[in-house]
Amino acid sequence: MKGDSITRPAASTGSPSDRSSEPSSPRRVMDAIINGINKGRYVPGQRLIEADLTRELGVSRGPVREAFKLLSGEGVLVLSKNRGAYVQAQSRREVKDTLVVLEVLAGLAAKLAARHIDEGDNRKVFTRVFKEAISHGEGGETQAFLESRRRFYDVLYDIGGNRELRGILPRMRITLMRLQFQAFVSRKQHESQLRELRAIAESVPEGDPKKAERTAKSHLRRRRLSLTTLPEEAYAAANQL
User: Fold this and answer.
1) d(Cα 127, Cα 129) in Å, to the nearest integer?
2) Which range (10-14, 86-90, 110-114, 221-225) has the least confidence?
């Protein structure tokens, strides 16, 4: 899966008459779907209605169908010959495998960020996005918190400056995972996540790469345990696809 969700341009928000004069490309449809997922408009297991997209974006069915195929290839959508296109939902095994990989990647990202925290305005930006995440987190497992936490981790990866690491990060899979389990995170689990977020945010600015790596990896291990032990209801969308 390509990890470029934050670099895709936002879909046009003009009127239907304005949009109809724009290029009717599959890329624009893909951008609209990706943006909808990032904003929580489309969630794992949800069916995407072809006619709705053609009307909203002012495009023909051809670009929409091509966008569905391309996003299916990226693992964002699931195509069913008789049922249409659905936003990807992950099984328990897929979640476990993804988080095992993310544990390594997050550890490396935190280590690199600790090394580069005092370059340019890295420390200032890192502190700002952390405060935003904590502020939104006080309201619970809301969409605003999910978005601000995503920005926090995006900055964590970006500060490290390793383009290969950023390129292999499955950002869309992470976003879909957060959306899929948003309703199943208890208050206690949410508060635990905030504590772990604080721990990462405190270890990176210390400039100790090994400590930052341990902290991030520990968080992902606990996250994997909490998600993979959720009830079967949390995985119902994946079982239906």
Assistant:
1) 6
2) 10-14
Report how far residue 184's alpha carbon sits from residue 179's, in angstroms, rounded to the nearest whole number: 10
Q: Mention every residue, 6+ apart, whose C-beta is less than 8 A from residue 199.
A: 215, 219
DSSP result, 209-234: HHHHHHHHHHHHHHHHHHHHTS-GGG
Which architecture does CATH list for 5-87? Answer: Orthogonal Bundle (1.10)
Which residue from 160, 147, 148 is spatially nearest to 110, judged by alpha carbons? 160
pLDDT tens digit sequence for 45-63: 999 999 999 999 999 999 9
Rounded to whole angstroms, what are the CA distances from 167 to 27, 105, 158? 19, 11, 11
Residue spans of the domains in the chain: they are: 5-87, 92-240
Identity of the amino acid at 48:
L
Instruction: Specify the CATH number of the domain 92-240.
Output: 1.20.120.530
pLDDT in tens, 135-164: 999 999 999 999 999 999 999 999 999 999
Q: What whole-number distance in Å separates Cα of residue 224 and Cα of residue 99?
A: 6
Distance CA 38, CA 58 (A): 21
On whether the CB atoms of residues 28 and 63 are closer than 8 A, the answer is yes
- Token reading at 105: 């990647």
Of 33, 43, 35, nearest to 64 (Cα)? 33
Cα angle 173-179-183, degrees, rounded to a multiple of 5: 145
